Amino acid sequence: MSAHIESIALRALLAQVGGDREMQRRFVHDFVQLWHSRSQRLAAALAFPFPDAEEAHVVLLSIRSSSTMVGAVTVEATAAMMHDALRDGDIAGSVRHIARLNEVGELACTDLVTMFALQR
Questions:
Q1: Which InterPro entries match (predicted)?
Q2: Statement: residue 103 has pLDDT above 70
Q3: Over the stretch 4-29, which tens digit does the pLDDT of each residue have?
Q4: What angle do CA 82, 86, 87 make, to 5 degrees?
Q5: Domain regions of the chain by residue span
Q6: What is the DSSP string of 37-49?
Q7: Under 8 Å CB-to-CB from 108, ≥6 apart: which residues?
Q8: How far apart are the first and last CA of the chain?
Q9: CATH 1.20.120 assigned to 7-116
Q10: 22 Cβ partners below 8 Å, 6+ apart?
């Protein structure tokens, strides 16, 4: 499969959509298309001097759940670390991982684009 995408999750997604490969492809396409806006929303929510922890929580949940469904395990793990820090009230700890989340998110999107022959 790829270094950033877990094939088992993609097979599970296909099963969840009743074997409809076009629906699976659309879900993956949406993940890729929404990546940039999700990462921007998260950065804005965690921005100094007035971070919005509630908005960051919502965005991180969205990133985590969609990453799990497409098999982007490193994205999900990084978002989980950020989410844990946020839940502990450590906004600075969450912010420290934004660059890594963006990096692995872009790598996962690149792999998905290649795997599904998507336009970006």
A1: HPT_dom_sf
A2: yes
A3: 999 999 999 999 999 999 999 999 99
A4: 120
A5: 7-116
A6: HHHHHHHHHT-SS
A7: 4, 5, 67, 70, 72, 74, 75
A8: 20
A9: yes
A10: none
